[in-house]
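[agent] plan:
  1. take the single chain provided in the ticket
  2. run structure prediction with default settings
  3. attach structure tokens to the ticket
  4. add a short note for the reviewer (M.T.)
[agent] executing step 1
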Amino acid sequence: MAEVEEQGRKLSEESTDESEEEDTEEEPKLKYERLTNGVTEILQKDAASCMTVHDKFLALGTHFGKVYLLDIQGNVTQKFEISPVKINQISLDESGDHVGICSEDGKVQVFGLYTREGFHENFDCPIKVVALHPQFSKSNNKQFVTGGNKLLLYERNWLNRWKTCVLHEGEGNLTNVKWRANLIAWANNVGVKIYDISSKQRITNVLRDNTNLRPDMYPCSLCWKDNNTLIIGWGSSVKICVVKERDPTEMRDLPSRYVEIVSAFETEFFISGLAPLADQLVTLYYVKDSSEHMEEEFRTRPRLDIIQPLPEGCEEISSDALTVRNFQENQCRDYRLEHSEGESLFYIISPKDIVVAKERDQDDHIDWLLEKKKYEEALMAAEISFKNIKRHDVQKIGMAYINHLVERGDYDAAARKCQKVLGKNMDLWENEVYRFKTIGQLKAISQYLPRGDLRLRPAIYEMILHEFLKTDYEGFATLIREWPGELYNNMAIVQAVNEHLKKDPTNSMLLTTLAELYTYDQRYDRALEIYLKLRHKDVYQLIHKHNLFSAIKDKIVLLMDFDKEKAVDMLLDNDDKISMDKVVEELKDRPELLHVYLHKLFKRDHHKGQKYHERQISLYAEYDRPNLLPFLRESMHCPLEKALEICQQRHFVEETVFLLSRMGNCRRALQMIMEELADVDKAIEFAKEQDDRELWDDLISYSIDKPPFITGLLNNIGTHVDPILLIHRIKEGMEIPNLRDSLVKILQDYNLQILLREGCKKILVADSLSLLQRMHRTQKRGVRVDEENICESCHTPILPSDMAQAFGVVVFHCRHMFHKECLPSPGNVPGIQYCNICSAKRRGPGSGILEMKK
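[agent] step 2 finished; step 3 output follows
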């Protein structure tokens, strides 16, 4: 449980044992400080007996009968000598202009702090309670209650005299009274009553639970949460009562209001005071622990708890033990809890000490997090509430977090936080870099350094690069790739890398990094040389990006050796920069590479490299025979004699057959298929492609003494050659495999041909008839002739302007119109004329369909 803050502990007359302080991970809800200044001097000579709190000031009563008005810092602003004995209760109205005071010797005083009006009365018994009407300052609300063994209501009438009325008596001494709006609550030895001043009715009586406790030693605590909610604490019992309006239909002789107890529960300790905090309760406990193992000085420290009321119980939210002065000598009745509703301030009053508890703000929350070394949470809280915090700075908290991470040895996390905490403060950045250098952790901070618009001095980056170069080539290469070249002096780093290469000249990582540095420095030729030496994948990107084609004209073989596909694609895509002839010249001593280049060139354009087609024949034959035949088929510039010679020398039968057929020597080609390939299917396919009757005769003659060939012919020539020619030439008695199946297939093919012909004939007849009917319908239609039509020959209106004159018009089915005299003579066939326009366009003759005369 938390202790009162350090300031309070220093000023306390009695120190506490540090071993009794418990360190908990749960953050306190309240913070504490002693009310000092004038209060300290007062309580050194006197003792506090009661206090009431206003938003503007405090009113403190003492055992020696004095009342002090204090500001919220504890400074005395006014002092009143009321009585030589104990002040029992002080009451203020809402405006803070009037005060009511009662004392143990029976004195009651009600007076204005800023006026001379007042009420002074001496009773013959101790007066325990007094309460002013909340609106006492108003003339029509001049009312207050007071009493010792009975409760009296004083009210000033229109004659400016005080009228007295007994509200209650006969149940022992009064111990407390609280007035809120129109409701007065008081406690005596029996229980708590509530009186409605507007209806002048007592509306409830809440009985005391712990009847075995002395009411004077364990007095009742009353607190109004709002105008209708009363909180009662007595002994170890808490009740929350709500005043409600009664349904008019149920009233009869009952009061118009009634009280419902919405929550009631027992606590572990005795209650000395209560106050609301939102929907929770702040409770001041008197702890009476008789454990034998506990020393006397620690037995009765009061506790201030925050609890969450439930219908039949409560839940503890926080609990703080308070070390107040002389707490060992205090009893339950010596403590009071008062609160200020406006600022959520809670005053714990004891005879020799007054402690102020207040809700912790965001600064306090950050203090606690920092104390518990929860720096990340503290930083997050400060960032979220940076507008509301007053004592903390986000950057300072961040720096404390970085220091904590460094002390803990978590250098990577510390470096990562630098990026967020240091932001744009370059001085702080440089300080942190030098600190990381001192502890030997430059590598940790390197990846988080600023590298955008805001940058450190080049010396900082160079220092880190030199550090990596000494111990970590891979990390050095990573930084060179990630950092822009403008961050550091490129020449200095190049020189350092060259020094290291003198010791290890074949180190590929250093060489690659050096090439990148040369690239940043625009010395592309040096970078290209290194990339080619290393066969680095970025060489092609470098060439394209910086247009280095002139530098690679004598390095084509190296590029091809590294990656043929990429190299060829690059050369073909940029043939305007590196000519085809130059590439062929460079590759003449590497025919396998030359073939790859020319092959891709041919695939892109069959005609572009035509002058190298003759050379390609031998290249295909040597390195890529599968693509030789496609090349021969697609090339129109290949010398056939040269190709035939090469294929015959290498015994490439299929290629030779193709060349012979292309050169017109189909019989020789067929002979090679039959003799060297012995493949009747290919022979038949070849004969079908050539579609030559003599070639079929040669194929039949060659196959007539070979039964398997005859079977193949019978199965395939039915649609090209009359099968009877083959069947007649088969010798009697020759055994032919699958002859029956072959004959059946011939018959089926013949039937299929017949069906196809008949089907085609039917379709042709149907289409002819349909077109004839369509033409007939078209020619039967009339043709409109009016003044808008013109003669297609003389281009004048087809109808004369004077319809009384004789005229003649000829209209054709094609809709062209002529004057009769504009048409030429009918020709050899009298009576038949044709449209000159359609005849000239070869669209077929159109005969005249109409002749108009008049």
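[agent] step 4 note for reviewer: Residues 1-23, 843-849 have pLDDT under 50 and may be disordered.
[agent] ticket updated
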